[in-house]
Amino acid sequence: MKAPNKIMDGKVVLVTGGTGGIGKDIAEGLASMGANVVVVGHDRSKGEAAAAEIKARSGNEALELMVADLSSQAEIHRLAREFESHHDRLDVLVNNAGAMYATHWETQEGIEGTLAVIHLAPVLLTSLLLPMLHRSAPSRIVNVSSWSHRRAKLNLDDLQMKEHYSASAAYSRAKLINLLWTYELARRLGGTGVTVNLADPGGASTEMTRSEAIPWVFRTINRLGRKVMTTEKAARVSIYLASSSEVEGVNGAYFDHNNKQIKSSKASYDEAAGKRIWDVSAELAKLDPSMPLQAVNRIR
């Protein structure tokens, strides 16, 4: 029998959206490598069942559940404090949680829901945990992206789609916005020992892709391809970016579901748009625009 791969022994990993779909398989894969994985989910009973399953399948009891609603900035602050109270290091942060809503709605902070979960949650959580990531360097951030960002039309004056809302368009736009922000983050993280890369999982049949918010043609494709478009396959690129020595030191790159570095859309490399997204994101997340480097500089 082949000996289990324990290359993540001693590493602490946080995976958002880790109690179902692709995130659950990411968590299981990294736990199987020996990592102490903390999964974040929004439903405690579902999360406890998922955590028990991951432990059983990975053979790793060092798996924890933390519960938070990532559409709420107050909840994200609480999550960061809870994580810091339980751990003194963070080697890998996987921002995987996603959402798609059939109708336009706003969070308590007045943020459109899709933008809040897909983009601002990673912005805020990453910024709050960056000092710990820096203390643990070399460390990694993996932001889970989507091919659908290529279909997005970016209107910098209406990021929250208050006019002409569409579920699929909101999702694609939020993914592009997060790409622009991630590339800007990579530029700012150069030389800190912390890297950030993007994982495109490809197609996968998940609870979200079966939602009524998804156009019927995509639901049909996902239903027909369920046996091929598995979450296990979709998780592989995030696991690769979180663990492989092949990407040690790689920063600001986009990888497809075959673990191959590729180009994202032309629009995603617009540095001027990236800087504007950075500032707007800081405003919406109530962060100093100099974050997260300000936090890193304080502990150097």
Walk me through this protein's architecture.
The protein is an alpha/beta fold and about 300 residues long. The protein has a domain at about 95-300: NAD(P)-binding Rossmann-like Domain (Rossmann fold). The protein has nine helices and eight strands. The chain has helices at about 20-30, 45-60, 75-85, 115-135, 165-190, 215-225, 230-245, 270-285, 295-300; strands at about 10-15, 35-40, 65, 90-95, 140-145, 195-200, 255, 260. It has an eight-stranded mixed β-sheet, sandwiched between helices. Strand 4 (about 90-95), helix 4 and strand 5 form a beta-alpha-beta unit. The termini are far apart. The model is unreliable at about 215-220 and about 295-300 (pLDDT under 50).
Sheet with the most strands, sense and barrel status = 8 strands, mixed
Which second-level CATH architecture of the domain at 95-299 applies? 3-Layer(aba) Sandwich
Name the average pLDDT.
90
Strand order of the largest sheet: 3-2-1-4-5-6-7-8
Q: CATH first level of the domain at 95-299: which class?
A: Alpha Beta
